Amino acid sequence: MVLIAPPLIYALALLALPLGAVLLFSFWTQDYLTIDRTPTLANYVEVATDPLYRTILGRSLVISGSVTLLTVLLAFPVAYYVSFHVRPDRKSLWLFLITIPFWTSYLLRIFLWKVMLGYNGVINSALTGIGIIDEPLTFLLYNANAVVLTLSHAFAPFAILPIFVALEKIDRSLLEASRDLGETAFTTFFRVTLPLALPGVIAAVLIVFIPTVGDYVTPAQVGGSQGTMIANLIQAHFGGLNDAPMGATLSIVAMATVTVIALALVWITRRLGGAR
Amino acid sequence: MLRAYTIAFLIFLYAPILLLPVFAFNDGTVIAFPLDGFTTKWFAELWTNSELHAALVNSLLVAGASSVLAVLLGIAAARANIRYKFPGKAAAMGLIMLPLVLPEIIVAVSLLVVAVRILGFDLSLWTVVAAHVLICTPFAVAILNASFQSLDPSLEEAAIDLGFSRPETFRLITLPLIMPGIVAALLICFTISLDEFIIAFFLTGSDPTLPVYIWSLLRFPRLIPVVMALGTILMVVSVSLLVLAEWNRRRGLARAGVADKGGFL
How far apart are CA B262 and CA B186, in angstroms? Predict the structure, then answer.
């Protein structure tokens, strides 16, 4: 009890209380320069009715959903390869190789994607250099697709690691049993390997989805006006727009939406797991 | 086929990173192709840029203070989590680990609201440290959970039976055995804090941390090659720190006589 007290008190004071304060703020309103402390749902009504807020919240969810899907689909074969086809004493080397790029400065990685995709960037220079295109492509950067690509790159290790751990836990004799009982390699994968790896896949989905919804740097750097996400809007309300209560409301709405989606996902997979 | 795909994926992972040294040594201010020739002047400029030095010192102070505090809290939480049962344990651990699954902007916003609007504090490096401790503690707990799990309780019991007091047992028996975990947690927390941007962006006062300073540079193209040079150095430093952490972890496993199951996460 004495041991748990310091970290618990710290988390209560710096996490639970501040979240409570944000919730409180979200029911107030900004009255020009002062804050009107009359509790009201006005901010929530505005978020629900103003198409700007709905568009950006919806776009954040779509972008981060696409990132999640893309990242997990791309990551699964990598995790599978390292778990099933790499010699056991070489596995940590491979994992190490996969995680190294993600320890370089996050800001610089995002910026480097701008260099990759830009007008005079790597891809355009390479394509014009070998004569495939005459004019640099302009649709690569400053849109939602650029955000999806950049975030998928940034979160790849977060998807690979949990899937790898789940695959490592699979008892290899189950796969042999399945083959002995007449299943092909293909059906064994879909009826044995994949269901057993599902907890890792779900963990990967959550680990990618939750932080990407609230990402600020990537949309700000590569998103352009068509790639603005909820975090940019929240930051704008606390910064230039000077409307902290609205920023608080947007934070609460974003957090609630993410939590509901995450819980729904966990619930659905539990049901699927139970039905089998 | 799968091997070819995995190698292609690694190339995708490394492609942007490999551009860092390319442009750090490129003799031109525009970050685009074609390249303009070799230079080391951007590295030389790093030595003379005093704003950059101040930001680096700020970041090192923040990362140092945050990692030490987070690991101290992590030791307490992991020890309580592994060794003891008490009512409300799941809820308490859940709250401590919550920052892992919370978008960082939410942490930043909530602390900003409390610090500035409610308590009326001036933002400073200390507000950044407070927030970084909060987000680093779950990582420290996760690593130290594993350390305490592999620690045989009978060793501590034996020490107490042989007449050691509890503090002596902790200092002479427990601490040396979990030391590799502590070092790994310190390194990971240090790296996380050093690279964290959005929380520092919200909570920093007039003294920027390194990522906040880099962010301000990204708007002034003339200084971008300097950022590339800095990035190259940072990359070398963080990779070295990680190699050190991994080496230390393996040594710890070897000392505890456990087979290497791979991976430091």
Answer: 20
